[in-house]
Amino acid sequence: MATFESDLAHKFAPTYHASRNEHNYLAQLEAQPEPRLALAHPPWRPYVYFSVVKLGTRDGQRAYEINYLTIWDWDSGSVGGFGAHQWDTERAAILLTGPEDSREPKAYKVGQAYYAAHEGVRLGGLLSFDNSRYVEYRRGRERGPDVWWSIGKHASFRNRKELEASTAGDSCRAPGEIARPEDYTLIDVGTLKRPSAAAPWITYKKDWGPQRISSVYGKLKDRLWDAAGNLLRDILRVTEDEIKLAQSVLRVSETGQLDEETLQRATAVLPARRVWTTQKITRAEVKELKADHRIDVSPLL
């Protein structure tokens, strides 16, 4: 990667907020085509990867998308540890714009940020738990965003208030640990077309690990923005009526909120492998749930 683009990534790197007693570790991978753990690093001394993609120019402004990848050795799962899995690929991203004739990082500003929180994840294949969001900085931001990680799940949020309001039951423990850019290692992975020597695994298209979690390739293959700053990834939001229907099926109070009672009930009746999934539930699994738990989820399909 050009030095200028690397300088951009370093200048606008996030400040991370980790919970007290976070016991999962950030992974440093071997420089091999298949993802393999080389070393593990505590979240207060992170090992972070980045990918810079030039989106093009518009009205004299050049735009870049920078993805900051945090890869964890383990995800501790939801209520009661259900849905825990080896590997966890997470990210936050920024949209940078600056004069197309400038090669000075200080001439650029963050126009938008993207916080990935359970991208495309569904509860039992039924209800969207995607709490990802775009944030716009109308006047531009001259430093990287703050990213709050949920404990054990590592979803990204812009502040603690939004983290604790997550429909996926995310939480944090204070006082936590803060990792500023000068506190961690930042490694360039290149792009999918031109992976760096340090990260040939970004082109590995298969799901990762025995639980088949989302690959880094799956996150990087589609852009989040175009050069004009238009949003290119839809975020599926669950509605109150959908939650009430699910609660009726699960036989809990129909509050319209994904509360602890709903999560506890779901983890009690759903197979552990289906608590967190990026796939819709299949017809065969509908029959399985009816037979094993005497509940009919077919109204939710």
How would you spell out the order of helices and strands?
Answer: HEEEEEEEEEEEEHEEHHHEH
Main structural class: alpha+beta
Whole-number total of structural domains: 1
Q: Tally the helices: what do you get?
A: 6
Taking the sheet with the most strands, its summary is: 6 strands, mixed
Low-confidence stretches: none
Which strands sit side by side, in order, in the main sheet?
10-7-6-5-4-14
* Helical proportion, percent range: 10-25%
Q: Beta-sheet strand percentage?
A: 25-35%
Oligomer designation: single chain
Q: Work out the radius of gyration.
A: 20 Å
What is the approximate shape? globular
Q: State the distance separating the first and last CA atoms.
A: 45 Å
Q: State the total count of DSSP E strands.
A: 15
Mean pLDDT: 91
Summarize the structure.
With 301 residues, this protein is α+β, with helices and mostly antiparallel strands. Helix content is 17%, strand content 30%.
Features:
301 residues, alpha+beta, six-stranded mixed sheet, four-stranded mixed sheet, single chain, globular, 6 helices
Explain the overall architecture.
With 301 residues, the chain is an alpha+beta fold. The chain has one domain (3-238). The protein has six helices and 15 strands. It has helices at 3-11, 160-164, 216-220, 240-250, 260-269, 283-293; strands at 15-18, 26-29, 37-41, 47-58, 61-75, 85-99, 109-115, 122-123, 127-128, 133-141, 146-149, 156-157, 177-179, 185-188, 276-277. The strands form four sheets. A six-stranded mixed sheet has the order 10-7-6-5-4-14. It has a four-stranded mixed sheet with strand order 12-11-1-13. A three-stranded antiparallel sheet has the order 9-8-15. A hairpin with a 2-residue loop joins strand 4 and strand 5 (61-75). The termini are far apart. The mean pLDDT is 91.
